């Protein structure tokens, strides 16, 4: 995901995020998220970042999306956010430290460039299935109401 944060001077930074629902949170973070963040840090995925930010800003009606992209790349105002589902092993302070170990090596610089979140729900898959069923029910009801009109 991408988030463009504004400040008083116009654009503060772009936040590159990864949100993962998994049974193996440490493995996911270590083997998939950190390498992806490193690719953005080293510039290997700049084309993807440029395209994504340009599309977001153009869609929001920004008057100069290309200028913003140049400013973001030139000043390297990037931050990162990882959010992952966790089990009992990672809900304590020590567990979260173990889960996000290596973040400071994947994304160098001040801690303000790195955000991390853990989401614990017992039986996550069942919980998510219930949300999906409720969403489908609401959509079906809205479509039925629209067809009656």
Task: Give a quick summary of the entry.
This protein is 52% helix and 19% strand. The protein has six helices and four strands, in the order ββαααβααβα.
Structure overview:
By secondary structure, the chain is α/β, with parallel strands linked by helices. Helix content is 52%, strand content 19%. The chain is built from 6 helices and 4 strands; from the N terminus they run ββαααβααβα. The protein has a 4-stranded mixed β-sheet with strand order 1-2-3-4. Helix 2 runs antiparallel to helix 3. The mean pLDDT is 88.
Give the strand content. Answer: 15-25%
Number of strands: 4
How are the strands ordered across the major sheet? Answer: 1-2-3-4
User: Which outline best applies?
Assistant: flat
Encode the helix/strand succession as letters. Answer: EEHHHEHHEH
- Unreliable stretches (pLDDT < 50, length at least 5) are none
Annotation field: number of helices:
6
How large, in whole angstroms, is the Cα Rg?
19 Å
The proportion of residues forming helix, as a percent range, comes to 40-55%
Q: Which sheet architecture does the biggest sheet show?
A: 4 strands, mixed
SS class: alpha/beta
Distance between the termini: 37 Å
The residue-averaged pLDDT reads 88
Oligomer: single chain
């Amino acid at each position: 995901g991408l988030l463009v944060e504004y400040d008083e001077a116009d654009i503060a930074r772009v936040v590159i995020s990864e949100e993962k629902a998994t049974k193996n949170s440490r493995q996911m973070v270590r083997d998939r998220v950190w390498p992806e963040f490193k690719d953005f840090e080293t510039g290997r995925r700049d084309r993807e970042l440029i395209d994504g930010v340009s599309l977001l800003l153009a869609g929001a009606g920004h008057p100069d999306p290309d200028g913003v992209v140049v400013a973001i790349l030139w000043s390297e105002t990037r931050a990162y956010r990882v959010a992952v589902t966790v089990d009992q092993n990672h809900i304590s302070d020590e567990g979260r430290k173990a889960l996000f170990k290596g973040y400071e090596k994947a994304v160098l610089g001040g801690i303000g460039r790195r955000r991390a979140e853990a989401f614990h729900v017992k039986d996550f898959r069942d919980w998510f299935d219930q949300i999906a069923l409720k969403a489908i029910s609401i959509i079906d009801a809205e479509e039925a109401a629209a067809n009656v009109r």
